[in-house]
Amino acid sequence: MSTTIALAGNPNSGKTTVFNILTGSRQHVGNWPGVTVDKKEGVYRKDPKISILDLPGTYSLSPYSAEEIITRTYIVEERPSCVIDVLDGTSLERNLYLALQIMETKIPTVLAVNMMDEVKSKGDIIDFKKLEEELGVAIVPIEARNNKGLDDLMDAVKQTIASGRKPKELDIYKLSGSVDEDTLADKRYGYITSLMERVVQRKSSTSTVKQESRSDKLDKVLTHKVFALPVFAVVMYLLFAATFSENFLFIEGLPSPGVALATLVETLWGSLTDLISSLLGAANAADWAHSLVIDGVMEGLGAILGFLPLILVLYLLMSFLEDSGYMARVAFVMDRIFRRFGLSGRSFIPLLMGFGCSVPAIMATRTLDSEKDRRITTLLCGFMPCGAKLPIFIMFVSLFFADGNKTFVLFFLYMLSLFISILVSLLINRIAYKGQVSNFLMELPQYRLPTLRSVWIHGFEKVKGFIQKAGTVILAATILIWALSNFNMASFTGTNVQERGTALSEMDESFLASVGKGVAPIFKPLGFGAWRPTVGVATGWIAKEMVVVTLAQLYSEDVTEEYLESYFSRFDRQELAEFGFEEGLYSEEDAFDIYTEAVLMEGLDDQGLRTLRADIPTKQAALSYMVFNLLCMPCFAAVGAMKRELKTVRRTAGAVGIQMLTAYVAALLINLVGNLIFGA
Amino acid sequence: MTMGDLRPGQKARVLSIGTQGAMRQRILDMGITPNVAVELIKVAPLGDPLELSLRGYQLSLRKSDAALIEVELL
What we know:
The complex is a heterodimer of chains A (680) and B (74).
Chain A (H helix, E strand, L loop, with lengths): L2 E7 L5 H9 L3 E5 L6 E6 L6 E5 L11 H13 L3 E7 L3 H13 L4 E6 L1 H7 L2 E2 L1 H8 L2 E4 L8 H14 L17 H19 E2 L1 H4 L7 H9 L5 H17 L12 H26 L4 H38 L1 H14 L8 H7 L3 H7 L6 H11 L8 H11 L5 H26 L9 E3 L8 H35 L2 H5 L1 H6 L10 H9 L11 H9 L6 H9 L6 H8 L4 H7 L8 H13 L11 H4 L3 H13 L4 H11 L2 H30 L2
Parallel strand pairs in A: 1-4, 1-5, 5-6, 6-8
Antiparallel strand pairs in A: 2-3, 3-4, 7-9
Chain B lengths: L10 E7 L3 H9 L7 E7 L6 E5 L2 E5 L1 H4 L2 E5 L1
Antiparallel strand pairs in B: 1-2, 1-5, 2-3, 3-4
């Protein structure tokens, strides 16, 4: 017969470490129905007949938060064979509160008192025998981070199950009359306080001078009145720079670990793509098959792979900060600001990450403790001006604002994204959550040096989760856009094959172009109601920098061979080499790619794409186009990440809908106000 | 006086909790019950929230919530 053991415990009690050690790599992450809380299951490493379920970390079983309801419902209704409650031995008093509530359910319970190394170094002595007698359940001291005591723990669990030992009725519950939760909470804590006096000998209470722990000293600096914010800024800079920076630690040309890994992955993937491409060529594959594999599948997979190094590095660092206890201090320091926007201090990190890339940013919302904050922050991450949106801005700024106010326009866009985020957050709070205040009652855990093992497990889990949950969305969506932009009716009637020698169509005759023509009038009020900019927006969903590439392709009359040749003729050999021409020699074949990636994206050609200006006639229309791309649905990879965090298709669609609506309204206002001031 | 009036380093005993609803339960669950001794450790750099020490651990709560908790100095 198989048995199920449930792991419960306070957040920061080391429950996850216990779970990881007990199950090894045999874990399965799913989710509890209807909520954005992970459901982790695994099989005991040393006995596959025992399955272990990791319940969400909670402080109590009061049915108020999603985590508490899940834990309570599971224990009461599913009735696991045994519950292991992991307690932080250094704050036993508070941890025992949940233990009492679990024992009240009368499910066989074993208490694992964790962090015994810290308890010992503090000099406290816990009388486990006496504690066991008083509570009537098995109690095992463990040191999860040093992998000590876990075999004893499992032995105690097996014994408890075999003997059917149930927690005994404590005297505190023998109350007369109706008992409300207030009285119960009071009774439980009252009992725990007296229990602590009987079983714990504190060193600090016997010595006259209160000893300051290392954690207290560290905290004095990290949340110091004056130093807290500068230290915080440095930590955040390092977190951000280590993931995204191309000039890490201000050293010119030194890539950060994240960027270095990403470049490596992209280079390897590029070589693999080239190899497959030439193999397909050698095998005489049909044009469309070649394009499907290279531009559809490989591009889609590449989009997923390219994000993995960023997620991995960011997550390693984030779990370090989380496990070390600093993350709680970030929330402590930033709460005052974010509360005004209807969020809590913890939303800061995901939003900051959004300036680099929305995908890891959205995944970072997992560390938020309220479901409301998680959902709103996930939505807001899409508004952040991520690195891939920058090429759009730079190109448009150089094309339309070449006369001096470039920096101001960029600054305006960044400020606008923050302003819109605040506004949307306030509105959602008001409308969807009826002004429900994010409660902020947060434990500030002891600072601890996290173990490499747990940091690695957390980081790796995220990467795995991203591939599993977001991968399919990204791949499917990328292939869809590929198909739409490469085929038209003539592909299927055979006309293309007859006339062009291939089933594929030019992009400006494709389905996507037809759809663009149909949809374009919607954008008329925004100032860019032509089909080419519309198609640009759509390809931006594959990856935002694609907008630039697509526009260059669609305005091909602006980027003729003659134009490219005359544009590049003004540069000498060395400069051409810097652009990426091999040995500094101009080549027609590479000119288009180099022009889009090294010139347009960098905003170097402020005379380029002349006919684009007919479709986007005014400065306000150009600004409106940038704002629309900034705020509308992020790339599919980010939508995949959103789906992973929001769990349901409906909520994800709702969030994307809000993003689209926000983008439309903001762009509309900009165009209208611009028209009023400067004239259409 | 209320918990919000405490200055860093001051210790106090909780008399009553004026908060209602879910937040009240949460406050009780976290160990702020009548008669418990608390110490105000510090105020966050931007002036809010507060850091308290009670029952052997540190807890952070907002001033607006602290203002509803009656205490007496120890």
